[in-house]
Amino acid sequence: MDEVTPNPPVLTRRGIGFHTAVAVNLVLLVGVAGFLAFDAARETRQREREKVAALDEEAMTLHQAVARLAHHSAGELQEFVDGVCGRMTDDASPGHHIVVEARGRIYQARAHGRDSDDTVGAVRAAAQAPDRRGAIRGEVVVVGTHAEDGTRVFVAERLDTLRHEVRAQVALRAAAVLAFGAVLAMAVNLTIYRLVSRPLRRLARTIGAIRAGQLGARAGAFKSRELAGLAAAVNDMGRTLAEDDARRRSAVAHARRVQENLLPKPGRAVPGVTIAAVHHPADGVAGDFYDALPLPDGSVLVCVADVVGHGVPAAMMAAVLKVLVLDAADRDPDPGRVVRRVNARFTALGIPDGFASLLVVRWCPEQKMAWYASAGHEPGLLAVGSQPPVLLESTGTLLGVLEDGEWESLAVPAGPGATLLLLTDGVTEAMDADGVQFGRGRLAEVVGRADGGTPEGVVEAVDAAVREHLAGRPPADDYTLVAVRLG
Question: Of 308, 311, 280, 318, which Cα lies nearest the Cα of 474?
Answer without folding.
Answer: 280
